[in-house]
Specification:
Elements lengths: L6 E8 L3 H18 L11 E10 H16 L4 E11 L3 E6 L3 H17 L14 E5 L5 H13 L3 E6 L3 E5 L4 E5 L1
Antiparallel strand pairs: 1-2, 1-7, 3-4, 3-6, 4-5, 7-8
């Protein structure tokens, strides 16, 4: 790829319906207000299937076409979210009750990315721990140690039927839902 060809940043995720997105956004806003961590607000509520990758606008159309084909061969399933867990010392997330359907979808997607969308094996996530992040990177260790005991005890419950996946595109500041 020539250095003068503009690339965009994308990632692939499962995104819940708007009601859940609003609930999760309010949790992220609470984390921002109480613990001064706002990085998680840069993207809508989601479960990542493929970490960020760069592509040109020309490649974008083919990726969308291939993703639509991929999704047409998948069966819908339910995702249930409950409670909070963490990756110490900076990440707090909403837990997925049964990650197996998402892990299976990810394995199929990984194969499609490698076989049909010219992804390099080094840019495709090998392992997946499905979760929905509410605090990340900019949550300091000190803030984490104050926040986690509280969130560890809190309840959260939501579910939705997964019928599609989403391509998100970075706009220079935040992630936008680009294509369902």
């Amino acid at each position: 790829m020539s250095p003068d060809i503009k690339t965009n940043l994308y990632f692939i995720a499962l995104i819940p319906h708007e009601e859940i997105r609003i609930l999760v956004k309010s949790l992220k806003e609470e984390i921002r207000e109480r613990f001064d961590a706002k990085h998680a607000l840069k993207s809508p509520a989601h479960i990542t299937l493929q970490m960020p990758f760069k592509r040109t606008i020309v490649e974008e159309g083919e990726i969308i076409r291939q993703l639509k084909h991929f999704v047409s061969n998948q069966q819908p399933f339910f995702v249930e979210l409950t409670g909070f867990k963490s990756f110490p010392p900076r990440v707090i997330y909403i837990d997925v009750v049964d990650p197996e359907p998402i892990i299976n979808l990810h394995a199929d997607l990984r194969k499609a990315l490698l076989d049909h969308m010219d992804f390099d094996p080094n840019e495709v996530q090998k392992n997946l721990h499905p979760h929905m992040t509410i605090a990340t990177r900019d949550l300091t260790k000190a803030s984490y140690s104050r926040a986690w005991p509280e969130y560890e005890k809190r309840t959260f419950h939501a579910h939705w039927e997964v019928k599609s996946l989403f391509l998100l595109k970075h706009n220079g500041k935040n992630w936008d839902i680009y294509q369902e």
